[in-house]
Write a structure and sequence with these properties.
Radius of gyration: 22 Å
Largest sheet: 2 strands, antiparallel
Number of helices: 4
Strand content: under 5%
Shape: elongated
Strand order of the largest sheet: 1-2
């Protein structure tokens, strides 16, 4: 069940949603997330395809019991954590100040 909000809160949200700052917040988010999502999915798909169709290459032993497939798999984790850290820093630097300003504006408007 959806939460009931006041008419004033809805109007304040609609006004803020139409601002240039809100549009910039969405643009910043999409400019970061879409390319990195596509890149990560391509990287993951490469891993899957190589595992299925390049078994000889992926099975190549690098040293001891470590082969190329294991290194690729571990790099998936490294990539995931790297992107997460990169996004957190990006959001803190570019998005959070805008979001904080909009939230403050919204909260002061509905408290009147």
């Amino acid at each position: 069940m959806a939460e009931k909000i006041s008419t004033e809160a809805h109007a304040a949200y609609q006004r803020i949603h139409a601002t240039d700052e809100f549009a910039e917040l969405k643009r910043s988010y999409l400019r970061f997330v879409v390319p990195l999502t596509v890149a990560f999915m391509a990287w993951y798909l490469l891993y899957v395809l190589m595992s299925n169709y390049a078994g000889g290459f992926m099975g190549h032993v690098l040293f001891g019991n470590i082969n190329v497939a294991l290194v690729f798999g571990l790099l998936q984790f490294v990539t995931t954590f790297g992107i997460s850290i990169w996004y957190a820093r990006f959001a803190a630097r570019r998005m959070d100040p805008i979001a904080d300003s909009l939230r403050h504006e919204y909260e002061t408007e509905i408290e009147r």
